[in-house]
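Hello,

Our lab assistant flagged a job as stuck in the queue for most of the afternoon. It eventually completed. Since we weren't sure the result was trustworthy after the delay, we are filing this so someone can double-check. Below is the sequence as submitted and the structure that was eventually returned. Let us know if re-running is recommended.
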Amino acid sequence: MSKLTTLALGLAALALACGGGGNDGDQGEATRGAALPPDITNMTPRVVLETTKGRIVLELDRERAQRTVDHILLHVRNRFYDGLTFHRVMPGFMIQTGAFTPAGGMRQSPRPQLQNESDNGLSNVRGSVAMARLPEPHSASTQFYINLSDNLGLDYNASTGAWGYTVFGRVVEGMDVVDAIAAVDTEPGVISEAVPVEPIIIERAYMEEG
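-- returned structure --
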């Protein structure tokens, strides 16, 4: 089994492990039954992650991954990601966030799981942003990861029809911050096999204006 396959399975296993546990905070209720505001019409909206390591700007691709992007923007608008950590950091592979607080509490969304859009032509290349999910392909929720290298083994396989991991955007500013997060010391933990020793927190996630 290749290293990439092992890491991909680990990604799915972590998402599976995240399926249980209690909801943390009020962000879940804020997204229950909510609809995306009608003013969001930009096909390449940008989301800013203000982290304890610095600023990361993500440009999202609504043309190719509209369901996924709208889902993410809804949660950003309702401050779901504020206060969450990068809970899985694997140098040479990816950094992952979207579920856990610094205290280890799990934040869950009441929104339905997403239809897989990995067949959209976008690829898991360095700097791309994609959804983590369960082994079942249509099961992504709020967790996403930033690729640290070209992880093409996570893409949709057109020849076999095997679902991959939906890429929905890319880092357009702050890849140096992403690399700095990837370089922190980690240790095995309950929530992942590579938890930063010092929590890396998303202090605020918001849509960039203009």
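-- support follow-up --
The delay was a queue issue, not a problem with the job. The result is valid. Helices lie at 3-17, 27-31, 66-77, 175-182. The first helix runs from residue 3 to 17.
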